[in-house]
Fold this sequence. Notes:
Layout: H1 2-8, H2 11-19, H3 27-42, H4 44-55, E1 67-69, H5 76-83, H6 86-89, E2 98-99, H7 103-111, E3 117-121, H8 122-131, E4 136-141, E5 144-145, E6 147-151, E7 165-168, H9 174-185, E8 189-191, E9 203-208, H10 211-219, E10 225-229, H11 232-239, E11 243-247, E12 258-263, H12 264-269, H13 271-290, H14 292-299, H15 312-320, H16 324-329, E13 343-344, H17 351-363, H18 371-374, H19 378-384, H20 389-397
Parallel strand pairs: 1-2, 1-3, 7-9, 7-10, 8-9
Antiparallel strand pairs: 3-12, 4-12, 5-13, 6-10, 6-11
Helix pairs in contact: 3-7, 5-13, 10-11, 11-15, 13-20, 14-15, 17-19
Amino acid sequence: MQKKYSSIITPNKQDELAACSCCSLSRRDFMKLSAVLSTAALLPNQIALASEAENIAKAQPLRPLRIGYLPITDASPLLVAHAKKLYAEEGLEVEQPTLFRAWPQLVEAFLAGQVDVIHLLAPTTLMVRYGSKFPAKIVAWNHVNGSALTVAPSINSLRDLAGKTIAVPFWFSIHNVILQHLLRKEGLVAVSKSSKSTNKANEVNLVIMPPPDMVSALANGSIAGYIVAEPFNAAAENLKVGKILRFTGDVWQAHACCVVFMRQADLELRPEWSQSVVNAIVKAQRWTRENRQETAQLLAKESGNNYTPHPQAVLERALSYYDTDTYSKQGAVQHADWQQKRIDFQPFPYPSYTEELVRLLKLTHVEGDVKFLHNLDPSFVAKDLVDDSFVRKAIEKAGGAKAFDLPDSLVRQEKLA
């Protein structure tokens, strides 16, 4: 199989994919993250108090802002705010953002107080706050859409996935939620079996796989497809090893994937500082949505900024290319009338989305300890998990709701295909 893979992807392109391995999440990483959160659940008060003590030390100047991220397009606003000196405009001293190689490392650093603000998969924030009982909150969305279901060229419909294996990056991800929503609508059942097990005719086997491994696994036929964030879908297109069967934003209109996550202690004890952080990120979102090609240049490995390992061409496609005519013909876009972007940047965390996310998670097959999920009330979570007071002010400062194509009411109804 390695020979087949090599015949499709040139050595230079193999290097490009290998460079992306820093944003992977394997099954082992999933278990590690679960262990990290389980440990935090035992000592939430001690961790929170340690963070608070550092934050409110009156005798010392405030430390520089510390940002943690994985090098994917989801992190763009956090990185653009640094590159364009938007944190400094808000009076913040900031360190070079810290690149983490997997979600467990990022979450562990956040829990330990080593970084102050991170982007995190929206469903994973529920694990942190309710599974581990760690006091942290969503303060804004980082982006909307920006993910897709990419499949082998021979796959033409969801029904073609019956009996096959699809890779997902994490159980508690919007990718897993939306994929299983689609499968249920087709009468297919999501399962997670060992490689030696045989799928039934109506089953789709889901495996946790690092994103760069997804591209090569698709190329050599180990999997029939994968659902993941950009730029890995764009990479498969550029490498001509797969096609997009469906954009997730065409299934759940303008859905959040990664969100801006901060410790509750900072929000309560340093509100002005927290407001400045959110202001900078929101300004970066407006700049990014208006300067997509320059954003790709800033974040690309060719820039020398050391933000991501991705080639500029892949980032440009991920940030900008959404030909609705072409994608409609192959079924990837079925709601061109929604007039969306492949990925977009708007910061407001709609309560209706959080409520729907909790409801869908309860219907979604995941591995691990999910007892905490069963008793969660969607309306309670929408109020308790999210603090939108900072982002409301930041939106007004950045030009108001219309600057982000948001309704003045900041209220919407969720649309799921």
